[in-house]
Automatic annotation (TrEMBL):
GO cellular component, as recorded: TAT protein transport complex
Gene source species: Alkalicoccus saliphilus
A GO biological process held by the record: protein transport by the Tat complex
NCBIfam families for this protein: tatC (TIGR00945)
Function description: Part of the twin-arginine translocation (Tat) system that transports large folded proteins containing a characteristic twin-arginine motif in their signal peptide across membranes.
One Gene Ontology molecular-function label: proton motive force dependent protein transmembrane transporter activity
Key words of the record: Cell membrane, Membrane, Protein transport, Translocation, Transmembrane, Transmembrane helix, Transport
HAMAP family: TatC (MF_00902)
Family: Belongs to the TatC family.
Gene of this entry: tatC
Segments crossing the lipid bilayer: 20-41, 61-88, 100-127, 147-176, 188-205, 211-230
The UniProt record lists the keyword Secreted: no
Protein name listed in UniProt: Sec-independent protein translocase protein TatC
Length: 242
């Protein structure tokens, strides 16, 4: 086996190791979350003024599994980012390694911030709007399955998309993207944001707006952060070439 093939095998072994650690962390977090899933369920439904109905016994376990999965994903995010960082670490310079290490705690903060934004800000506004829309016309009754589908659609996409500034900073730090490129392709990014927002949000105009506006703000903030990282990277490259 030649040197190139050996390097490919080593990379694949390293990737397999990182994936196993991520899966093991997720499973451990899932089991922990499932133990406390009833408490989590009670907390998520404490502000509802009506009981949630289920249409079959399997709905209960599916709802509990969905809640536990989201909680375990949130708990596993720092480990996931750490494993990604360890995988790409050998290809980074010492300065890039030190700078990108801060992304690990930041990833958890942004993920949790996205969940909190969706749950505490977006959901109350959208839910109140939808309930008032049918007030006096329809008798409102939620099934647990439909309600938690709504909650997940209003929280999980935000938690993932809130990682955008972090991803942009990292890709800028290793030279994959530039702030000029992001600025030049802004109209395409806006179009993609609109498409994603329509797909992940409930089918009403207010929900679309509540998703689109924060994502556009995140994209613009990402450009600003990319400029900062890009300037630092160019300065390091100039210093290393002198």
């Amino acid at each position: 086996m030649n040197q190139e093939n050996m390097e490919i095998v080593d990379h694949l072994d390293e990737l397999r190791k990182r994936i196993i650690i991520i899966l093991a962390t997720f499973i451990a977090a899932f089991i922990t979350a499932f133990i406390f899933v009833q408490d989590i369920y009670d907390w998520l439904t404490k502000d509802l003024e009506m009981p949630l109905a289920v249409l079959g016994p399997l709905d209960i376990i599916l709802i509990y599994f969905s809640i536990a999965a989201v909680v375990s994903l949130a708990l596993a995010v720092p480990v996931i980012v750490l494993q990604i960082w360890l995988f790409v670490k050998p290809g980074l310079t010492p300065e890039e390694q030190k700078a990108s290490l801060m992304y690990i705690p930041a990833s958890f903060v942004l993920f949790a911030g996205g969940l909190a934004f969706g749950y505490f800000i977006v959901i109350p506004i959208v839910l109140d709007f939808l309930l008032n829309l049918g007030a006096g016309t329809f008798e409102t009754m939620f099934t647990a399955d439909r309600y938690f589908q709504f909650v997940l659609r209003m929280t999980v996409p935000f938690s993932i998309l809130f990682e955008m500034p972090l991803v942009v900073m990292f890709l800028t730090s290793i030279g994959v993207i530039t702030p000029h490129g992001m600025h030049k392709n802004r109209k395409y990014a806006y179009f993609a944001i609109v498409i994603v927002s329509v797909l992940v949000s409930p089918p009403d105009f207010l929900s679309d707006v509540l998703v689109i506006v924060p994502l556009i703000f995140l994209y613009e903030a990402s450009i600003s952060l990319s400029r900062i990282v890009y300037k630092k990277r160019m300065r390091r490259l100039r210093e290393s070439s002198d």
